[in-house]
Amino acid sequence: MNTSFRFGNIFMLLLIFGLCKSVLSDEVNVIIMNRLGNRKITTVHCQSKDNDLGNQTIADGSQFGWNFSVNVWGTTLFYCDLGWEKVQDYHFDAYSFDRDYTRCESQCSWLISEEGVYGLNGQTGLWEFMYYWPN
């Protein structure tokens, strides 16, 4: 086998492995904070295609979080169903690779309020209003 051909193949494999490792090694922390006030409790059930995080109860002023690594295909998605006294079974994406890989990089924070759901933009450091509660 030609030495330059072999070197080229090894170089290409190392390059591909390096690119895959950079995506796979990106660990993300997601936090959902209850800021409803007046001791209101929210319940959340978050999951991905592969991981079910179960039902969680978050007291006012408390938070729930988890860590994961994004997949090499750039399709990682964690979604949640949440509810509280005025809203039942509200569905939102807690992490969507397409939206969040640059917006919140390694830390995706969500704030649950009476107005709706805010997401922290890691690039600007500002809370952005992301989701309205249904009427």
Keywords:
alpha+beta; 21% helix; four-stranded antiparallel β-sheet
What does this structure look like?
It is a single chain. With 135 residues, the chain is α+β, with helices and mostly antiparallel strands. It is 21% helix and 48% strand. It is built from two helices and nine strands, in the order H-E-E-E-E-E-E-H-E-E-E. It has helices spanning 3-24, 97-103, and strands at residues 27-34, 42-47, 52-58, 63-69, 77-84, 87-96, 107-112, 116-121, 126-132. The strands form two sheets. The chain has a five-stranded mixed β-sheet, with no helix packed on it. A hairpin with a 4-residue loop joins strand 2 (42-47) and strand 3. 19% of the residues are buried. The model is unreliable at 17-25 (pLDDT under 50).
How many DSSP-defined strands?
A: 9
Q: What Rg do the Cα atoms give?
A: 19 Å
**Anisotropy-based shape:** elongated
β content, as a range?
over 45%
Q: What's the tally of helices? A: 2
From the helix content, strand content and strand pairing, which structural class follows? alpha+beta
What is the share of helical residues?
10-25%
Poorly predicted segments: 17-25
Main sheet makeup: 5 strands, mixed
Topology readout:
Elements: H1 3-24, E1 27-34, E2 42-47, E3 52-58, E4 63-69, E5 77-84, E6 87-96, H2 97-103, E7 107-112, E8 116-121, E9 126-132
Parallel strand pairs: 1-7
Antiparallel strand pairs: 1-4, 2-3, 2-5, 5-6, 7-8, 8-9
In short:
The chain is α+β, with helices and mostly antiparallel strands. It is built from 2 helices and 9 strands.
